[in-house]
Amino acid sequence: MTDIPTQQGVVRVIGSDVTVQGVIKSFGDFKALKGVSLQINKGEFFSLLGPSGCGKTTLLRILAGFENPDSGVVMLDSSDILPLPPNKRPINTVFQNYALFPHLSVYENIAFPLRLRKTSAKELDARVWEMLDLVHLKEHVNKKPQQLSGGQRQRVAIARALINRPNVLLLDEPLSALDAKLRQQLLVDLDELHDAVGITFIYVTHDQAEALGVSDRVAVMNKGEVLQVGAPHEIYEAPATTFVAEFIGETNTLEGTITKVEGDVIYIDTQGLGIVEVTAEGNWQVGERVVHSIRPEKIRISKERPSHEQKDDNVFHGKVHERIYFGHQSKFYVNIDSGLKFKVFKQHVNYMDMGPLIKWDDEVYVAWDADDGYIVERVRA
Fold first, then answer.
1. CATH architecture label of 2-245
2. pTM (predicted TM-score)
């Protein structure tokens, strides 16, 4: 058992390490998991992120005991849990559809797992009120689920899952049924709840913003495989594959051939753009084909060509094909003279910040530093 610092102070970590080794699962001819291995640390908020059908929910169901793998190992701390049925595992699950009993009050929904265990009335009452306080629902204790908002119902489901004091809490797309604004608030609540209880959270989502916003680490999955595991900033800034780069947020990807290497500055002759400079660590060789990524928010856009005083290693001329205003930012789709279409995001950091005003069909320059690009991967022959 260890302590971890949080904004609320020091939290006693009471969760379990979760080890997944070589897990394979097929449904007929469809291979849902192709030898997945993960090490999830005690007390982590760990997210499984990927598109529909990537295998993340199948893996969660195997952890919960609702599915059995064809082969592989699943351990909590040093114990093999695969032989255990779901009710014998120190793991609880929160589902996206809440799974509350409509005829029971908030109090009785939360108390239900303890009643199954024949917990004494005194202890049951104390623990229910502890959970009600934790999820901020004390004033709704006598209401039925249909009298609650979607966010409140989800908090009841979380309280019910936590009342047995599991070592691991599994959350299967818990916010998907909520509107965008409520999802943001519940995400903050989940993060604070994790800090408060200190157990291991494993969170399944297809929403990149959710995973990046609350996770200690993220595993990006696709087609039954784990493509990358890392902290949110590592996944975003240093994607391991082209799929990760394009799935996490938005980016511009360019394929090309390395023409020159000068220290950590790499020159890439890209398809549709020409020579692009990027700084990159590693052993890169002239003649290698690579994929280069540049995030839209790292690109500057202006009507005037950047001056020599500005550090812009990559400058290209084009014309605005589309501009979309989002309040906090504008998204520009720029047709570069070579024919390539580029995405550029401009943040509106000041009141009524319009640019200079850039509109549809304007001629513009897009520019970025070599430090802001990233070589994602080598192209396989």
1. 3-Layer(aba) Sandwich (3.40)
2. 0.89
Where do the structural domains in the chain lie, given as residue ranges? Answer: 2-245, 250-303+311-378
- Report the 3 state secondary structure along the chain: CEEEEECCEEEEECCCCEEEEEEEEEECCEEEEEEEEEEECCCCEEEEECCCCCCHHHHHHHHHCCCCCCEEEEEECCEECCCCCHHHCCEEEECCCCCCCCCCCHHHHHHHHHHHCCCCHHHHHHHHHHHHHHCCCHHHCCCCHHHCCHHHHHHHHHHHHHCCCCCEEEEECCCCCCCHHHHHHHHHHHHHHHHHHCCEEEEEECCHHHHHHHCCEEEEEECCEEEEEECHHHHHHCCCCHHHHHHCCCCEEEEEEEEEEECCEEEEEECCCEEEEEECCCCCCCCCEEEEEECHHHCEEECCCCCCCCCCCEEEEEEEEEEEECCCEEEEEEEECCCCEEEEEEECCCCCCCCCCCCCCCEEEEEECHHHCEEEEECCC
pLDDT tens sequence across 225-261:
999 999 999 999 999 999 999 999 999 999 999 999 9
pLDDT digits (tens, 9 = 90+) for 89-121: 999 999 877 789 999 999 999 999 999 999 999
φ, ψ for residue 263, nearest 5 deg = 65, -120
The CATH number of 250-303+311-378, from 3.30.420.10, 2.60.40.10, 2.40.50.100, 3.30.310.50, is 2.40.50.100
